[in-house]
Write a structure and sequence with these properties.
alpha/beta, 5 strands, binds cytidine-5'-diphosphate
Length: about 200
């Protein structure tokens, strides 16, 4: 069975948590596509060459989840040749037998426009900054909020594959939802589509 769930949204909207929970519930494979961009950025050197030579080991670096890696990823992610170099891997992953859930910025619009379920997960910038600031356990909330706003703008305003909801995506605002509530809503959508 092939079944693809595409989850997009800005930083700390909850898309990764929802993607992992759906993968667990339905036995789907999960790909955090942001990790690919983070790994390319942290590899250094020419980013397009880094994308072409990306290997499994690059994805296990300990520093990929830092705020700095997220910031660096959003800079290199604006390079069209780099995005093109990562496209085939993501599409192959999406087509794998047994179902797949991919989360990122352009999954429903560019990578998997035919996905069976598309979710666009949002939350207010203040809520997202608070989540990231608490995860980091250091630094100032104001600085993190500023970073969130800058990264949102960069991701939404780039010419190639900007962050935006696909026309047929379901919007899920997690600002006032607990993780359990957000996951329950996403799970219901997938279950409804699977039972069709
Ligand atoms: O976890 P968080 O939402 O903060 O970031 P991420 O999903 O790991 O993505 C880091 C950066 O990679 C984003 O700000 C985007 O610029 C870029 N990205 C992208 O362009 N396309 C994707 N499918 C995934 C990430």
């Amino acid at each position: 069975m092939q079944f693809t769930v595409a989850i997009d949204g800005p930083a700390a909207s909850g898309k990764g948590t929802i993607a992992r929970a759906l993968a667990d519930s339905f036995g789907f494979a999960h790909l955090d596509t942001g990790l690919l961009y983070r790994a390319v950025a942290m590899k250094g050197g020419d980013p397009v060459a880094a994308a072409h030579s990306l290997c499994a080991e690059d994805l296990t670096r300990g520093d990929l989840r830092t705020l700095a890696a997220g910031e660096a990823a959003s800079r290199v992610a604006a390079i069209p040749e780099l995005r093109a170099a990562l496209t085939e891997f993501q599409r192959d992953f999406a087509r794998r037998e047994g179902g797949a859930v991919l989360d990122g910025r352009d999954i429903g619009t560019v990578i998997c426009p035919g996905a069976d379920v598309k979710l666009f997960v949002i939350a207010s910038p203040e809520t997202r900054a608070r989540r990231r600031w608490q995860e980091a356990g250091a630094g100032s909330y104001e600085a993190v909020l500023e970073q969130v706003r800058t990264r949102d703008a960069r991701d939404m305003e780039r010419a190639d594959a900007p962050l935006r909801p696909a026309d047929d995506a379901v919007l899920l605002d997690t600002t006032d939802l607990s993780i359990a509530e957000a996951v329950a809503q996403a799970r219901a959508l997938v279950a409804a589509r699977l039972s069709r």
